[in-house]
Records
---
Amino acid sequence: MTALNDPPHTATELSDEEIFRAHEGGKLAIGATASLADPRALAIAYTPGVARVSRAIADDPSLAAKYTWAHRLVAVVSDGTAVLGLGDIGPSASLPVMEGKAALFKTFGGLDSIPLVLNTTDVDEIVETLVRLRPSFGAVNLEDVAAPRCFELEARLIEALDVPVMHDDQHGTAVVVLAALRGANTVLGKDVKNQRAVISGAGAAGVACAKILLAAGIGEVTVVDSRGIVHVGRDGLNPVKAELAEITNGSGLRGGIAEALRGADVFVGVSSSRVPEELIASMAGDSIVFALSNPDPEVHPEVAGRHAAVVATGRSDFPNQINNVLAFPGIFRGALDAGAKKITEGMKLAAAEAIAAVASEDLAVDRIVPSALDPRVGPEVAAAVALAARQDGVA
């Protein structure tokens, strides 16, 4: 709900008719890469010619990487428990989102992908399912899995599979947030080492953002959830938040979002909580506000702009859209180009640097990251990630 002091949204209204017509029949189709125009072509692509290829792979399983699409195919996997801002809507209702994700992979990363929505929320069952399906794909993009279960699921799959696995809601968000902070600091002449960031939300995105900002050398991170500042000794912390408390809040702050934001340099909103204007006004001078909740940011960008030097959202109708599409297609493309078996922290940091570098040519307070449609981003991120994979020894 929009607060009374918020300016109206400026997004172009989309009609139901236009939206549903675009989704009718789904958004994906399988296309053949081999010609089937005549009997000879058919005999090569299918029987009897295909039998020779199958025999060769049976004798040497490594040939599957050359003669099938599996090594370049990303499985986009969800259980439908944390879909966009809709919450736990189930696997069938999540499928349009996963189809859209697959379309983004193709458009911005040149990768084929297949949506897999699973009718279970049991971590053991999901892991077993993907282990059994492993010969059919070359990477796993976890999507819209609720926290804290998503942390265990990702860790289990990384351990069980010999292919890159990444939960995009965590790491894609974190990579683009770091890239945006690099851009904002360059514009403002600030050093991340001297900054304190407040992250509103301790779910998948919030935890990953905290960790990547710390890895990038930020001075301090304070995380706030629905019960206030996450700190050592607070009652009721789950294991993920308990670990987070150990590495954040070095100043020992107590209280809620008001106490956290007072004097802070950076705000990163990855929850649905509203932040009043007076709390943004209490931040340090030349502050940076990333209000990323969709469709309604934690604070309207025009309101935040009265006090902050740089403001970003997750929406396309305001400047500085922090969009995961800047990260995940290139990350997976680079990992697969390098033959990486996993996605390392170094690869994520390299992706953030690559995104920031693309934006560096014409940085401004209203352009701290490239456009989500910038065709340079995917190839640049892929190249940087592939190099980092080799440097990290996972290629």
---
Amino acid sequence: MYANFPSLNLQMSDKDAKFAEAPCWYNNITYSDEYRRGFDCREDLMSPGQFLMKLRAGGSVILSASLREEDPGTFKRTFNSYYAKAGELTSYRDILVHNADLLITDHNGRKKINAGFSWMYTGLLRETLIALPGLTLYGLNSPETFEEILDNLIADEQERLFRRTTQVESPLFLAGVLQRYIEFGADEKAVWKKYGVIVRGILESYLPGERKEVSMQPNGLLWAQMDGVALSWMNAYIDGRAVTERAGYQVETNAFWYNSICFAIEMESKYGSKRGKFVSFWSGIRDLVKANFQPMFWNAQRGCLADYVDNSGQNMDIRPNQLLAIWVKYSPVDEMLAPSILRVVDNELVTDRGIRTLSPRDVKYKGVYEGTQIERDLAYHQGCTRPFLLDAFVDLSFRIKGPAFFKKAEWLTEGFYQDLGKHGVGAFSELYDGDPPHEPHGAISSALSTAALLSVEYIKEKYREAQR
């Protein structure tokens, strides 16, 4: 077709099949989605011809497309082998597990998680840590895969874990991931022996003078700021400017900080070789964070937590980050405040396609993810829902409300199964419109969404068994 274009071999398993040459160029094919988004949307497509064959009723034929010529006699055997390995998908859980398996890739013998098909990257720090328990433990029931992927991630992400990152909360996810691994059945002593040095190193990297983008302040809390840079998972940009910069004390980052410190103290107290010195030093910081977190973020008038606090005071945008602050195992928020916070999140952010990133009552809210790149970036964290946040919401709701929450948990997930033929066939989308009817968008198969739904199904099954 053009210089250096590789030869494509199209072959059929039917030895009597004939190829009829009928080369034709279809010019200026327009892709409507790309056109709507303001992307390059037109190209020419070539059809070389057609295969002709006789097929009896119920018959089948295998087509092979390859960069080299293959033996047609092997096509049916190879196809049947792959088909048998795939197995039959008879339930929604089967579909979730199948997607989990597809999203775990093998790069030169090293397992990693692909954040989402078809354009998201493989081996990302934040996405891997968030998706890891759901895909490997609750989906594949494979602690071996969990540790292999985590070990590869730690080896690849030394810079972000210990020195600098624009994902300031991401290294602090590790403690929560290990807590879930232990809850799943891993031996906590073995876990701490293997990963304790990593957790301790991460904590130390947030002490004053270690990182430029984020650092512990005299009040024990973490202040994150780099002018013009979005230092959290809400990191969309328009013309180089962050849509949601959130500079200052971020509510979820400080909750993960507190949880990480508490987890490290707990494990070091039991299994640390230098437990006295470590526990003494970090207990003081833990107490400092506990004493200052709630006065910093709690807003009694609104009955919820500030999204972040900067030099102007509390930012009271109603976002889901406060949900994470009461979901962590060791929360710096008094337990009696959790129902009020959960109620605000439920009333303003929860939909049957995930959790909104901003309340519809906010003037910045964008309920539909459509239009140009700028219009979509304005909606990305300003109203679009995120299915991955259901993990925290459902888990926390069951903790507070018990089995009475079961019917709503089912309502929160059934819509995703209805959409399996809508965006990415047989897969779970990255995000949805904040406005009804909540159309799917983004990556057509998301590791975060798949992992969250697997986690929710795992939680539901535990409560289902408790009711039997």
---
Amino acid sequence: MAQTAPQPEKAAAKVIPIQESSLYESHKKIYARSVTGVFANWRWALVWITQALYYGLCWLEWNGRQAVLFDIVERKFYVFGLVFWPQDVFYLAILLIISALALFLFTAVAGRLFCGYACPQTVYTEVFMWVEKLIEGDRATRMKFDAAPMSAGKLTRKTAKHAAWVVIALWTGFTFVGYFSPIKTLAGSVMGWQLGPWETFWIFFYGFATWGNAGFMREQVCKYMCPYARFQGVMFDPDTLIVTYDAERGEPRGARSKKLDYKAAGKGDCVDCGICVQVCPTGIDIREGLQYECIGCSACIDACDQVMDKMSYPRGLIRYSTEHAIAEHWGRKQIITHILRPRTLLYGAILSAIVIAAAVGLTLRQPLKVDVIRDRATLTREVEGGLIENVYRLQIMNLAEEPRRFALSVTGLKGLQIDTDPIVEIPAAATQAVSVRVRAEADAGKRGSNRIHFEIRALNHDEIFVREKASFLLP
């Protein structure tokens, strides 16, 4: 009887462990090292200038009122000697266009200058980090402090830090609301615990946003929330000034003694100290090339220059330069020459033209606006003497901050006259509706609609004059 050959044992199935991975990078707290230098001084200068304007401008007075006030309730925007009404939305559009063009120009010339020096997120992060350093110590001390177990001393210092942050944040929110509600009245309401619901909401909301963004989120706002970081690349080109690491000069990097002839040892200028990473507020390594997280604050330039000074190496291993300048070894003169390229010249020309046109328009702006509306209840009617009467509603806006008297007149048809008082007094920075009855002879024009013009002239100010068209109906 034939025997069946023994079957080999089946190999044990190989078990592959399942590895889980997150779609999102876990957040690691960045302990930015403080740095001094030329660019750090510029950043702090911008901090002082922007905050002096923000916190101080709302307390200035002009003609007995707040110099800068966006009074939404009264629908008037005061900017020193100018008063803007909802009808002046054109100027808001011009302001937005100027801001956009300025952003394009500055970015095309020197990258993210706004982000690194004047953005509110950068400014308040600098302020909060300064408070943090003042209370908790420098970078190394803060790292040890956070790693230590909770104690009475740690709790006290953490509480003091957050108390200082909350005071700054609430004052920031109070100032923000002070641009929309007269700040002295607002201060009185705060002291008397009589704040309105919307004022309370916006003070605490803006304060909470400042505390959260500058105290906790910091670089995450720039990396994940701000859209500017995402579309900045379309405004860069190889001749844009950016914070750049000179890899040709710095590589191969490595630690060494100051006395070592590093060039003979085949090393570059970079000593691989990592200080450029430690001072970066977004935690990137500039030596890996341009990254969208870079806000152009130049802290790495200051830090690297200090290391180069200690090693007696030339400054500028990390510097403001362009891709073409690094590749072609251009000097400063060639860099400046390529900054003035067609793209930046076009931006500059358009921006200058719009700014000049806006300035001229504001200078020649008449402090008087008039809207003419027909009375819908009474289109036309015959009155005594066989005259035809039309009734109009004139909305007269006195943009000046002084009361003025205006003379009304009408032209366009033979014998056309105003049957109401032709003299109207309008209070300072106010609008007033005036009902005007206009009469003409029945044969003064053609049947139907006839073009006429209302003329409104300020008494004792002949240069303040407005002429508005209207239609006069004859049966």
